[in-house]
Every structure is written in C-alpha cells, then in structure tokens.
Amino acid sequence: MSRPGRERRRVVAVEPVGPYALVRLERGMLDPGNPGQFFMVEAPGRVLPRPMSLCLAPKGELAFLLDPIGPGTRALAALEPGERVHVFGPLGNGFRLDVPRPLLVGGGIGVAPLPYLSEALERPPAVLGFRSEHHAEAAALVPNAEVVIDPVLVTDALPEGRDVLACGPEPMLEAVRALVPDAQLAWEAPMACGFGACYGCVVEVDGELKRLCVEGPVLCSS
Amino acid sequence: MQLLNASGCLDALTAPDVARSLDAFVTKTVTPEPREGNPPPRIAETDHGMLNAIGLANPGRQAFLGQTLPRLARELGPVWVSVGGFRAGDYAETCEQLARDEVACVELNLSCPNVDEAPESAAEVVGACRAATALPLYAKLSPHAWDIGETVRAVEAAGADGISLVNTLRGTALDARLRPRLARGAGGYSGPALRPVALAAVAAARRATRLPIVGMGGVSTGRDVLELVACGASHVALGTVLFADPDAPSRVRAELRRELDELALATVEDAFCAALELVVKAEN
C-alpha cells in the first residue's frame, strides 16, 4: 500500500474543462496512489482542506478535477501558476482493479477519478452522464466514453454483464447499485481530516456508521 | 509546558505518528455504553471555523477498556483518557476501572455540546470521580459558563487536579436553501474563531485557581500557544488544526522557538501569566 505524504506543492496550471477546473500540481515525492484514492488539498484562505480524488497523474504532476461551487473549490480554481498548496495523500481505499470486464460509470463531477482509473485498466468502455452539453466537455478526459445528457440517465445506458466501477452523485450511485448489486462505488462525504481523526465523514456500511475516509471512499455494495 | 491534542481531534490508532509527535495523547471521550453518534452530515466548515456534531461516537466503556486502551498504551505509553457520561455515577464507574499503568490522567468531559442528555453539575461529577480514583483528574469546561471562575473554584473544591478549557461553542450554519447544514441542526464551533474566547476563558480560570490549566481553542501557530500561556495556560492542546495539518505539533514547536527568540524569552514558562499581570496593573 502506498504511504501518504504531506508536501507543499507548486501549481503548474489551472485549466477550464467545461464548467469544471483541472488543477495541475507538481508531484514532488508524493505517490499518486491507486485510482479512487484521494488527497486532502489545502484550499487557500479556508480552515479545512478539501478531499479530492486524483484525476490524472501525468509525469511529474498530480491533477485534480473540481467543480467550483463552494468557497473552497472556488479558491482552488482561482490558484495561479507558481502558488503553493499543501497536499496530503494518497488516502483511503481505491478501486479493486482485478476485474475481468470493467465498465466505468460517472456522473457530473463524479467523473473526476475516472481518467486515472481508465489508464490503469487500459481504457475500458465508460458511460458518463451530465446535466448539460457544457458539463459534458469533461467527457473528453475519459477514453471510450458514451455520453448521456439529462434527462437521459447513465442507468438507461448500462450494458449487462459488466464489472461496474462508478463515481457520481448519491442518487446515481443508489440507482447503479440497484441494477448492479456488486458494483464498486466511490462515495463522497464532507471531511475535515481525511485520515480517521474527525469522525465527520461517516456513512452507513452494513447497517453501521463507518468513517468513509478509512473504509472507503470506494465501497463494494454487496 | 506540554503540547497535547484536544479530545476527539486525533485517533492515535489510525495516526500513531501524529500522536507520538505530541507530549501526551488525549483519547476521544468514552461513555459507559457504545454510541454510534449523530447521523451525517456531521461537519460543516464556516468562514473562520468549523462546526461538528459527532455526538460522542465511541465503542463504549467495555470495548474501550478491553481493546482500545491496551492498544493505545502499547503504542504510546500512558495516555490521557477523556471520560464522558450523563450522570455522576457514569463518570465515576469508568474512573474506577481505569488502570494506573495505562492512564496518565483522566479528563472529565463536562461540556460536550452535541448530546441531548445534560450531565449533572460539574462539581458533583468531579466529587464522585475523586472518590473513585487516585489518578489525576482534569475537568474540561465549556466556554458557555457565565462565570467560569465560579465553576473552576467549585470543581477544585470537589477535588479536581487541573482544568481543561475550552470545549467548543454551540453554533449552526445554513445552506443555500436556508436549511441547517448539520443533520443535528447545531453543533460545536471550533477553529480560529474560538481563539479569543479561549484566551479570555483561560484568563478567567487562572484568576480563580493555581491548578494546572490545559488551554485550547483555535490554536494553530506557535504564537497562539504563547498567547494562551500568557493568559495562564500551563499546557496547550491542538484541536481543529490537526485535521488540516497533521504536522502541526512539530511546526508549532518550531514557531514557538522563533517567537521566544523574538521576545527575548528563554523558555515558554517565562511568558506564563504575562497578560494577566498587565491587566491587574491596569485595574489598580
């Protein structure tokens, strides 16, 4: 298992991807970890860092895709090249990659971990759902993707007999789980620390509240 | 001066290196029965702090004493155990069962803002625990008290060996649609915004007692540590900052050394009560 590190890393670039922002940071000595693992990224001017799953790991870089909808994500999207932020990770448990017939499923900003996952699984097919054409520009980051736009849902386009690895909004994950009970699902929760200290990110797992940062963020539903 | 963590701000079993970088580790509060805690969402960041409504989630006394505490003691040596409950007997029964070789100190959590059941008066709990254990007893107090000095004198008279303060302030925050962001509605407010409250509370407690005081509330730099000591804290605990920066203990110590140099002080203790002396002079 990769050992998490905490370093202050330089911003290489922040690039728009539709309404989203791809924040590219120098990697330094940090391990990119397994697809689906996450990093706590310092949000300038905010009290708490933000949990971000790794989107891409180009040579010498770590890249995070985010939706600038709150004060922390807006501060991250406004970073200028050369500024530095603390990055801590990789944290949590990522996707299991020993699946014979992978299918990636993503919704909205939930596509964030899929480009890195796609690379690790040698570009399997993907089904991605977005709320508009503008948001769907993020599909360009995921190879071999079929794109659906609201009101068509990813669950309308799921082929059968596949090992599903999914990330997206909670209603999408619930719907995917209903169709594919053994899917690997990457969940999201507000986190203060990302390493098991705050007990803030609990979700119900097997009828018990468990820390998503320790047990997840990828959980297998069956 | 020892550097500790605030109870509930660090899990030494998932982050032992961080726990070892402190002078002493304080456990999450243990209650007689297991508690799952409050439903999510449990935390919300605000502009200058964070709200939490964890709800004293813990495995309960039996599992804590049988599994958690022995593991902690093996990893770290004797630890500070934060004890909680809903009546004086709850606290006292836990204190009675704490083994001297695993526990350095007991901190009685008399001030959790995130449970419905109100504990009995602070002095009554301290008195019951005093009769149950010879271990050092610290009373952790709320910043909500109207007269902190009065509470401090009462728990000292009941047998407390030290005071910890402050716990969080009760607060709430709303989302874009004007709904509470925490499932519980309100929670404990911590982080940088709490620091002036902590400074004043520690100063008020120090004017009431000569017992050791663990000061905490919004500390994130070496300068913050020194200010709490200047208000009368004997030791200082790090809370919310540990979530954002698990390297905070070593960073804060390095900053503290630079602060001392700048102020031409030899040790942290040279700043002890410095702010109080000035206030006394002004009053006279």
Walk me through the structure.
The complex is a heterodimer of chains A (222) and B (284). By secondary structure, chain A is mainly beta. Chain A has helices at 71-77, 114-120, 170-179, 212-215, and strands at residues 5-17, 20-26, 38-41, 50-53, 61-66, 84-91, 102-107, 126-130, 145-149, 163-167, 184-186, 202-205, 208-211, 218-220. Chain A has a 6-stranded antiparallel β-sheet, covered by helices on one side. In chain A, strands 9-8-7-10-11-14 form a 6-stranded mixed β-sheet, sandwiched between helices. Chain A has a two-stranded antiparallel ribbon with strand order 12-13. In chain A, a hairpin with a 2-residue loop joins β1 and β2. Chain B has one domain (3-37, 55-170, 194-283): Aldolase class I (TIM Barrel). Chain B has helices at 16-20, 61-76, 88-96, 122-132, 148-157, 195-208, 222-230, 241-244, 248-262, 274-283; strands at residues 3-5, 43-45, 50-52, 79-83, 103-109, 137-140, 162-165, 169-171, 187-190, 213-215, 235-238. In chain B, β5 (103-109), α4 (122-132) and β6 (137-140) form a beta-alpha-beta unit. The longest helix of chain B is centred in the first third of the chain and has 16 residues, at 61-76. The two termini of chain B are 30 Å apart. The mean pLDDT of chain B is 94.
Write down the CATH topology of the largest domain in chain A. Rossmann fold
Strand content of chain A: 25-35%
Largest sheet: spatial strand order of chain A: 4-3-6-1-2-5
Largest sheet of chain A: 6 strands, antiparallel
- Computed over alpha carbons, the radius of gyration of chain B is 18 Å
| Number of DSSP-assigned strands of chain B | 11
Oligomer: heterodimer
Number of domains of chain A: 2
